[in-house]
Structures are given as structure tokens and as C-alpha cells.
């Protein structure tokens, strides 16, 4: 799930919002002690995240197209439950899928178990930290999609770039996506409804004041049962990276940006850019 849905159904502009947003706090208070707060990628959150995963979206298509330029194995970093891994495998590529979360990787393994044996055989699943991995091999393409770079702090990003450079084949490319706010005048907080693959309807709250260095995403079931049963609420606060500064950081780390491709309309709240980088000469 890119967690970057566009159409807002409820919005609020308030200088006085709490860190996670007024609307999310109000909804949490309404549910009271039924709430079970979890992260987006842990045992409770991972199945909900996976339920909302989208496969035929501009980012997946752009990554599939980008890797066509060079044959060979692919490294999918922060692969999660396989939003990119599975479509890449379906095109006949060999893919190493690396992620930190046991729960997200369990969902990927379940999907692989259901996939044709030939596809499964081309996938290597690795539990590891994208900022310090040692796979003992190189790749013509390394991918870090879903704007997951923002999950790392500055030291983590520096370590990630070192690990990436150590695994890039000669002339190889590191592809990553970055999220910015495209609607400078938009609301601080939005709520959208989204239906998961299993039919569950969710409400996705996002608190992201323009110019803020982080945003908070909170996911509720839209229609929790009318009883006292627990309600799982997933929340995560993620950094927002400044694109020009990030490009400087990449250059200083030995990665040259060779192309920038906007994957969404420029004035959309979730403006996603695909960066292609290569080892600096
Ligand atoms: C936004 S999700 C993207 C998952 C998948 N690429 C997708 O599009 O659905 C971010 C993923 O990064 C993983 N992650 C977070 N920190 C990580 C780290 N330090 N190393 C590897 N994976 C990490 C999480 O477990 C999660 O699966």
C-alpha cells in the first residue's frame, strides 16, 4: 500500500492539531479502550497493510518498465509483502526481496507458496536491514520503492547508500521513489476511505502540515463491530525528505542522479518522484 491516497473526504486546517492530527485523535477517543494500537508492519498491522496493497499503480508500472533496460537479477529493498517483488517475478526476473519485518515477509512467503513453482524458484527472501546488508553478490538494478527511504534517519540513509554501492553491478542503477507534498495550500489533515482486497473498508487518516518534516498515518476500520471487541488501529510517523537536499546527500555518498520522473500530477498532495541513480565515476 503506498499510503498516499489522493481524494480527501474530510479535511481540517488547524494550527492547533496534535502530532497525529485532531481527527485521528477524535476517532481514537470515540473508540476508547477498545483500541489496540499497532505499527503498520507488525503482527497486527502487516495483514491490514497487505490487504490495502495495490499492484497496478503508476509506481509499480514505472519500476517494471525501468528495469527492462538491463537483464539480470533484481534486489527489491523494503520489499514488504511483495507489491513489487511479485509483478517482477511474473515478468520472468530473478528477485531478491529484503525486508526487516518478520510479519511482512510471512505474507510474502504465503503469496509465493500460492504462486507457480517456477516463479517461487526465482525468488530469494532475506530478512535484513536495508541499511546494513551483505548478500555477497551484485545486481544490475536495486529498487527501493514506496518512498521507503523516509523510514531511515540520516545515519541509516548513509549506511544504506554504502550497502547499495557495495551491491551494484558495473553500470548498475539504484532506483528509489521520494514523496513530497504537491498541494502547498491543501489541508493539514485528510481522511480517505479505501477498500481492501478482502472487502474490508478502512479509513486512512493523514496528518501532514505543509512544510513539516514528518507526517503521521493512522489506519482505522471504517465500520468496527457494534460491540466491545478490540479495534486494531495502525499508526506510523514517517519522515518527509526534501528532494533537492536528498539529491545532494546522494551525490555526497557517491550516487549520481541520472533521471527524475514524476509519477503523479505535480500539484497532487502525494507527489511521487522516481529517481534513477548510478555510482559516481
Ligand atoms: C512502505 S512499506 C513498503 C513495502 C512494499 N515495498 C510495498 O510497496 O508494499 C515499507 C517496508 O519497509 C520495511 N522496513 C522498514 N524499515 C526497514 C529496514 N531498516 N530495513 C528493511 N526493511 C525495512 C517494512 O517492514 C515495510 O515492509
From TrEMBL:
Methyltransferase domain span: 75-172
InterPro entries on file: Daptide_MTase, Methyltransf_25, SAM-dependent_MTases_sf
GO BP term, pick one: methylation
GO MF term set: methyltransferase activity
Keywords: Methyltransferase, Transferase
Gene3D superfamilies: Vaccinia Virus protein VP39
NCBIfam families linked: daptide_MTase
Protein name: SAM-dependent methyltransferase
The organism of origin for this protein: Streptomyces achromogenes
Amino acid at each position: 500500500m503506498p499510503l498516499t491516497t489522493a481524494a480527501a473526504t474530510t479535511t481540517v486546517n488547524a494550527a492547533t492539531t496534535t502530532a497525529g492530527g485532531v481527527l485521528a485523535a477524535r476517532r481514537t477517543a470515540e473508540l476508547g479502550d477498545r483500541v489496540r494500537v499497532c505499527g503498520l508492519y507488525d503482527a497486527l498491522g502487516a495483514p491490514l497493510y497487505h490487504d490495502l496493497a495495490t499492484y497496478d499503480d503508476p509506481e509499480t508500472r514505472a519500476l517494471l518498465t525501468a528495469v527492462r533496460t538491463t537483464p539480470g537479477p533484481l534486489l527489491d529493498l523494503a520489499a514488504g509483502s511483495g507489491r513489487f517483488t511479485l509483478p517482477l517475478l511474473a515478468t520472468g526476473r530473478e528477485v531478491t526481496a529484503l525486508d526487516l519485518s518478520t510479519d511482512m515477509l510471512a505474507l510474502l512467503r504465503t503469496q509465493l507458496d500460492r504462486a507457480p513453482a517456477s516463479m517461487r524458484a526465482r525468488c530469494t527472501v532475506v530478512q535484513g536491514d536495508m541499511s546494513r546488508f551483505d548478500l555477497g553478490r551484485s545486481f544490475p538494478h536495486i529498487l527501493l520503492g514506496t518512498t521507503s527511504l523516509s523510514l531511515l534517519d540520516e545515519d541509516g540513509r548513509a549506511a544504506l547508500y554504502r550497502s547499495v554501492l557495495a551491491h551494484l553491478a558495473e553500470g548498475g542503477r539504484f532506483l528509489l521513489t521520494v514523496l513530497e507534498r504537491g498541494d502547498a495550500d491543501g489541508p493539514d489533515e485528510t481522511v480517505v476511505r479505501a477498500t481492501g482486497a478482502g472487502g474490508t473498508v478502512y479509513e486512512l487518516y493523514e496528518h501532514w502540515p505543509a512544510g513539516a518534516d514528518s507526517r503521521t498515518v493512522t489506519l482505522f476500520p471504517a465500520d468496527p463491530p457494534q460491540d466491545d471487541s478490540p479495534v486494531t488501529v495502525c499508526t506510523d510517523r514517517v519522515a518527509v525528505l526534501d528532494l533537492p537536499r536528498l539529491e545532494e546527500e546522494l551525490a555526497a555518498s557517491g550516487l549520481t542522479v541520472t533521471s527524475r520522473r514524476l509519477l503523479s500530477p505535480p500539484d497532487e498532495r502525494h507527489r511521487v518522484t522516481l529517481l534513477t541513480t548510478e555510482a559516481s565515476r
